[in-house]
Amino acid sequence: MMTDPIADLLTRIRNGLRTRKASVHVGHSRMKEGILVVLKREGFIQDFEVADRRGRKDLLVHLRYHRGHEPVIEGMERVSKPGRRVYASMADMPKIRGGLGISIVTTSKGIMTDAEAREARVGGEILCHVW
Q1: 3-class SS of residue 12
Q2: Span 74-131, pLDDT tens digits
Q3: How far apart are CA 67 and CA 6, in angstroms?
Q4: Residue-range domains of the chain with CATH
Q5: CA–CA distance, 110 with 73 (Å, rounded to integer)
Q6: What are the backbone dihedrals phi and psi of residue 18, each rounded to the nearest 5 degrees, phi first?
Q7: What does the alpha-carbon distance between residue 15 and residue 7 come to, in Å, rounded to a whole number?
Q8: According to DSSP H, which parts of the chain are helical?
Q9: DSSP reduced 3-state for 115
Q10: By the 8 A CB rule, do 14 and 61 touch?
């Protein structure tokens, strides 16, 4: 039994980048799909698709690399965990790496980046940081 599926998503992406894989498979959920939509929109991953694998829905994440075969994602960190949830108001949203990274936040208006949450004037649970 998996207790933190979002941490599993981040770990699979991190491990795929370390081994220079073109893509990684992850179990499907709407929360993971929302996180991948944000990562794609911000240019951290190339693309993702919902695939049917062995009768189950899976997410196939296509990883992105620079021309020198260095990963676009330098680091990922889970913030809010099942044992310790972390929430922030619009005013308290952290800036990651001086604005070069993003926080992925789940709000009442959906999953978005910290900058989008500030613009929409909403707070929420900080899921992870990506830089």
Answers
A1: helix
A2: 999 999 999 999 999 999 998 999 889 999 999 999 999 999 999 999 999 999 999 9
A3: 29
A4: 5-63 (3.30.1370.30), 76-130 (3.30.1490.10)
A5: 23
A6: -65, -35
A7: 12
A8: 5-18, 30-41, 114-120
A9: helix
A10: no
Which structure tokens are listed for 10?
Answer: 């981040």
DSSP for 29-79, please give it.
-HHHHHHHHHHHHTTSEEEEEEEEETTEEEEEEEE-B-TTS-BS---EEE-
36-90 pLDDT per residue, tens: 999 999 999 999 999 888 889 999 999 999 987 899 999 999 999 999 999 999 9
Whole-angstrom distance, CA of residue 106 vs CA of residue 113: 9
DSSP state of 131: -
Cα atoms found within 13 Å of the Cα of residue 97, Cβ hemisphere only:
12
* DSSP 8-class letter at 97: G
